[in-house]
Amino acid sequence: HTARVVIDPAFRIGEADRRLFGSFVEHMGRCVYGGIFEPGHPSADPLGLRQDVLELTRELGVSVVRYPGGNFVSGYRWEDGTGPVGDRPRRLDLAWKTIETNAFGLDEFMVWARAAGVEPMLAVNLGTRGVQEALDLLEYVNHPGGTSLSDRRRKHGAEQPYDVKLWCLGNELDGPWQVGHKTADEYGRLAAETARAMKLIDPSVSLIACGSSNRGMATFAAWEATVLEHTYEHVDYISAHTYYDPSDGDRASILASAVDMDAFIDEVVATADHVGAKLRNRKRLKISFDEWNVWYQSRLQHDLDRRGWVEAPALIEDDYTATDAVVVGDLLITLLRHADRVGVACQAQLVNVIAPIRTETGGRAWRQSIFHPFALTARHARGTVLRTEPVTPSHDTKRYGPVPSLSTVAVHDDETGALSVFAVNRGETPLSVELDLRAFPGLTTTEHLTLDGPPRRLDTAGRITVELAGASWNLIRSS
Ligand code: AHR
Questions:
Q1: Ligand 1-lining residues (CB < 6 angstroms)
Q2: 337 Cα: distance to centroid of ligand 1 (angstroms)
Q3: What is the pLDDT of residue 297?
Q4: What is the pLDDT of residue 444?
Q5: Residues 126, 181: Cα–Cα separation, whole Å
Q6: Domain 17-380 belongs to what topology?
Q7: Of 3.40.50.2020, 2.170.30.10, 2.60.40.1180, 3.40.630.30, which CATH number belongs to 385-478?
Q8: Residues of the chain with pLDDT under 50
């Protein structure tokens, strides 16, 4: 079982944008309450921000964090979460059948984002709300001062505007589960008008129109086409979401999940470019892949059905396996391979809710298996992404038919000269991979990192052979 990969600095895809290593904090389950925020926790600061979670967030290497939803945002009144905490209203959150106390809101999130060293990415509510409320939020967040809303922000402690650049125009409005679900025409019109008006307040913002909730939606592709016909000239990104469910125990298929993500990206790009051509618009949109992960989805309905209205219930706190970590690593490889067209990506979510970081309320915080491929990729995928065309065996899967066993991408750090090759063996059989690095004569040492053992030293002499275990994630780093 052998494969071969030639790596050459001439095969440039694009920059490894830091924004590809984003995450997501939604008011859902214990992501905010008991996750990033828990007044009274031994590690909490005076505002209630858990320092143990902040430390793990920094270690994870997250760049952008999307907030406050998700399905939650489609019924959210952002101003509820601002001002004196004692005056904030308790509300019903219809998305997760939860009581929202609003003890944590926009201003607390901004303090948290600064402490975490991440770029905030905000979503406006286009489910139950519209243009005016989106404008009010943008004015509160980005306008310097001298108006009612910007002065309200200053009164709440933020003298300087937050200067948020990334804005999602609603969330998953193609989904019948969404509060305020819309047809593509209804949403497209609303998103276009919201975008146009938002750019009047702040032309420097980048706007993201909602694409499909997943590739399996009956409206997939038609939704993107219609929404973009309305919004193309006003937006910068179209979103994509996907979750891969290992519940049925079909390990061969779950290990091949990235094959689906890869095709999904190609199809969204083709659809967006088709609309661009039709509109004679030469601008090229990028994808904001702002929700992706492995998710044991079958458990959610069960969690929601068995209870009434409560505050911050534990929701979809999935325990991840070593196999799930390999899948997450391969999904990151796929996002990097599309670095020319995917400009933002957010793993969903950051803490407790299908997350790399887990916590006990009042107790410890820890890393799940999927933390490690994310942290290693975020740390080492710096510089120029290089296309690799592995010559690889393939194997059969129930969900996707025959799939290439080897998935790879290379990133060359132009400053340090280091070369990182990320590789996943999706098959169960060990794979012997010949890496042809002759186009990088300056490299002298190579290390092979995996998720389950100490790093191994390899000889670097133009061509090296690396043994990849079955179902494994690997980083081969040369300098
Ligand atoms: O991340 C969990 C949920 O999945 C989000 O709220 C929603 O946007 C998606 O369906």
A1: 26, 28, 69-71, 171-172, 213, 291, 348-349
A2: 25
A3: 87
A4: 85
A5: 9
A6: TIM Barrel (3.20.20)
A7: 2.60.40.1180
A8: none
